[in-house]
Amino acid sequence: xxxxxxxxGEQPAEVGGGRTGEPATPVPITLAKALNxxxxxxxxxxxxxxxxxxxxxxxxxxxxxxxxxQKEFGEARVIDTxxxxxxxxxxxxxxxxxxxxxxxxxxxxxxxxxxxxxxVSQLAKLHYRSGGRIRLPVTIRIPFGGGIGAVExxxxxxxxxxxxxxxxxxxxxxxPVDAHHMIQQAIRSDDPIIFLEPKRRxxxxxxxxxxxxxxxxxxxxxxxxxxxxxxxxTDATLVGYGPTVRTCLDAAEVSAADDxxxxxxxxxxxxxxxxxxxxLASVRRTGRLVVVHEAPSNVSVSAEVAARVCEQAFYxxxxxxxxVTGFDTPYPPARLEDHYLPDVDRIxxxxxxxxxx
Amino acid sequence: MPSVTELMQLLTPTGxxxxxxxxxxxxDPDAPPAAPPDRWTPDxxxxxxxxxxxxxxxxxxxxxxxxxxxxxxxxxxxVADLTDDELFGLYRDMVLxxxxxxxxxxxxxxxxxxLWASLRGQEAAQIxxxxxxxxxxxxxxxYREHGVAWCRGVDPAAVLAIFRGVNLGGxxxxxxxxxxxxxxxxxxxxxxTGYAMGMAWxxxxxxxxxxxxxxxxxxxxxxxxxxxxxxxxxPLVFFCQNNHxxxxxxxxxxxxxxxxxxxxxxxxxxxxxxxxxxxACLAVSRWALATARAGRGPVLxxxxxxxxxxxxxxxxPTRYRSSAELEAxxxxxxxxxxxxxxxxxxxxxxxxxxxLALEADAFAHELRARCTAMLDPAPTSLFDHxxxxxxxxxxxxxxxxxATLEPGDSGTDDRLDREDRLDTGDRHDTGDRHDTGDRHDTGDRLDTGDRLxxxxxxGVRDGFxxxxxxxxxxxxxxxxxxxxxxxxxxxxxQIxxxxxxxxEAHVPGEAW
Lengths: 357, 512
Known about the structure:
The complex is a heterodimer of chains A (about 350) and B (about 500).
Chain A: H1 3-8, E1 28-30, H2 31-45, E2 49-53, H3 69-73, E3 78-80, H4 85-97, E4 101-105, H5 116-123, H6 126-129, E5 139-144, H7 159-163, E6 169-172, H8 176-188, E7 193-198, E8 205-207, E9 228-231, E10 236-240, H9 243-259, E11 263-267, E12 270-272, H10 277-286, E13 289-296, H11 301-312, E14 322-326, H12 337-340, H13 344-355
Parallel strand pairs in A: 2-3, 2-4, 4-5, 5-7, 6-7, 10-11, 10-13, 13-14
Antiparallel strand pairs in A: 1-8, 6-12, 9-11
Chain B: H1 4-7, E1 10-11, E2 17-21, H2 84-109, H3 123-130, E3 138-140, H4 146-151, H5 156-164, H6 173-176, H7 187-201, E4 208-213, H8 220-231, E5 236-242, E6 245-246, E7 249-250, H9 262-266, E8 270-274, H10 278-293, E9 299-304, H11 323-330, H12 334-344, H13 350-372, H14 392-404, H15 415-422, H16 429-435, H17 437-440, H18 442-447
Parallel strand pairs in B: 3-4, 4-5, 5-9, 8-9
Antiparallel strand pairs in B: 1-2, 2-8, 6-7
Helix pairs in contact in B: 2-3, 2-12, 2-13, 3-10, 7-8
């Protein structure tokens, strides 16, 4: 996949999973399509939900996540905005004060920084500042992470900035099923949420129950801020989120085949607040923990997980908590990103080191 | 086509200059709307505007080239309906707000407030625009808009509470049509833009006004707000109080052109008004709000005024501006000018003015009492309202913190600790406040809550302000959109030159 293909949207259209009408046989859909269906359900359920961002309307977003929404819901609810990220968030705050439920798209992770003040000083703090009188149910969707061969500022992992900010919630989906439900849960939340989408997993497919949240036999079972065990194991625990969940699962497969080790994989899903219950339970069984993310290690989500696990499961640990992350460099040129991103080998090296203690 | 010089001759009811410029045809709010005030559609994009020519050299370099069109509106007509009482009410508003400002400054000097941002000198801009607002309108302030807060019925004690450090914003924006103060300058212009867009979508009868200053005009958020409000045709009045100083930096450090000229580049009309003329500010604001309400999009008003005090109580303006400049603006004091105007109309004599001064003193006295009676919030309240749905980490920290508190740490009063923290030095009143019986007995104050009225949700006692008392005695009740009446003021006294006011007229036999 080249970045050119991503940006010009030359992926084949996805099929299946329409909201209305049961498909005769379940058809796997992509993560991007699952988000699209989730957005559609949220907009249909609540007329105050508006989608706003650069190129989200006519074009359907550079990743086509909002494809068809403007046609279905009109230009007043799917708004192509000027190219001004601070204003996308700032006006969303005003709209939320007016009773709307904006879903903002920041086109790429590296473009969120012009909106930093509006997110960190305004959106995150107004509920507190107002003594609870103001509610700002704003969802900020950000495609994040690397691995697509993109140009600079299109591959970053800015989650730690937002996790560090009281008043914000930060979640990351890792697969189509979660994407479909989590986006609807995020939009329904009365708190501002940073919703991180693993852009290199947009085209991964799974069978998704297309029904909106709350409908009978909808697959909604897990709370938005719950972490979940996505592969059971007994020897060591891998923790990832967003794009690295798949990498962790791949590593567990290889480890089982090559080393005969049984690795448990936890998908954090919610980065703020953290739900460490499943992680702690897992560590208490395995005694070994490796945390994996694309963001740099310094003052990162993995640092927080490591600190809290040490506080709460110290006597269960057989080895120090280890981390496999992006390096503490700026995101490198695309031809070097395979060296930068955590991969199966680096994860398994860390597992080996853990067993070396 | 009038020349720029001719444009400068537009006079307000009190004879002051208004300058208006626009590339677009200046909207007439009485004309049928160009598009229904409906949800935004592409049809409501601002129609094509003349393309500006290249910048010209010479004295006008940096000014927009191309044609300027005059405001073809009768500004005096926008205040023609004011009754004598309403005219006096504007003056009374300014007097009370200034008195509040003086009291707050004193309270800061005495350690009762951590900081205060004085509005002195900007009363006319704030009262004039604030009284133009109606019940359906929404105002987004910066942090110096105490006069607008007053007009919106916000309890002055609630404003002081912020600067005392009791809370971060103690009024309900929805109830008052007045958003919380915004300290990151310019950020509120985007909130206002979004709110105004929502108003249009909701077919609200109201409009939004947003306050910012000459310094904030340099912020990127303000330019983004100009652009958005314009392309979405948002019912929004940008009200820039150009008070000449952004802490120590003069307006010329912010912009090479006059601030109001910036609107032309974004495709919407703008007006420059004498910000020390309360009637001019009222007239221009009413016109601008009517334009916005009629669905014609945003307007920029630049009210040229002067921050007569320091930026805040932590500032020392003698380091960057001359006493001669300050004196020149003292000569244009908005209160003196309105007093002279009223006196010349025979509406204000010594007796009435003295009466008002007494009212202001009583108001300030009560404000002081309520301010000093404000209790510190309960310590655990710092964990309240971080999020709508409880965050487990915050809950855990609250619980651990609460376990460390002594039984007496209920947050009612720790004045001694507070004074240590504030390092208030050798304030002579410190001992008094602790030694006098009616001040240092916490229990007494708690037990006699009805002495000053019950505690409201802010932890502030009711006594005046929002719900009655002094505000209700005024002529301008927050919520009145257009004040009915028929008195025409455009024939009113013109203050010579618009700069100097020499005393007031004494009207013999005046009842007051």
